[in-house]
Amino acid sequence: MSNVYSLDEKRILTKAGAQKAIHAIAQDSAKVILTDHAKKRMDQRDVSIDQVYRVLKSGTVNEPPIPEIRGGISAKICLKQRSDKGVCVVTVIYNDGALIIKTVI
After folding, report:
1. Interior CA angle at 26 toward 91 and 48, to 5°?
2. For residues 92 and 56, what is the distance between their CA atoms, to the nearest angstrom?
3. How many domains does the chain have?
């Protein structure tokens, strides 16, 4: 089965590769899945879904991504906002092009 994103796990293991994959996947909101935990943190931290997508589409991955035990690659992407200290989103990137949002910081 072919996939539009056709992600290469070796490239995702680099900061630049993870950032590129997150930016690409975030263009299709059907591929982005928020966990209940992420939704709770968004509410607690007063972060909107628009802010999350802004981070996903134009943020920076500053730490090396980490393979997840249950599959996928975990990466934290951040974007500093002019009006505050910024928002970070912890994601799990899957080879099928799905992007799970684990938490929002």
Report:
1. 75
2. 12
3. 1
